[in-house]
Amino acid sequence: MMHHFRNNALYILFILLTPKCLIAQTDPAFKPVSADIIKLSSKVLDEDRKIYIYTPPIDTLLPGKRYPVLYVLDGDNHFSLMAEYCRYLSRRDVNVMPEMIIVGIPNTNRTRDLTPIHSIIDYDGKPDTSSNSRLKSSGGGNNFLQFIGTELIPYVDAHYKTQPFKIFAGHSFGGITTINCLLTQPDMFGAYIAISPSFWWDKGYLLSLADEKLKNDRVVNKMIFYSDADEGMSEPSFHTNLLKFDSIITKRKIAGLDHKYAYYPEDSHMTEPIKAYYDALRFIFRQWDLPQTDPELLNAAVVKQHYQQLSQRYGYSVTPPEANMNNMAMYLITQYGALDNAISLLEMNTQNYPASATAFSQLGDAYLKKGDRSKAVICYKKALALNPGLQDVKAKLARASESQ
Question: What Gene3D superfamilies does UniProt report for this protein, alphabetically (predicted)?
Answer without folding.
Answer: alpha/beta hydrolase, Tetratricopeptide repeat domain
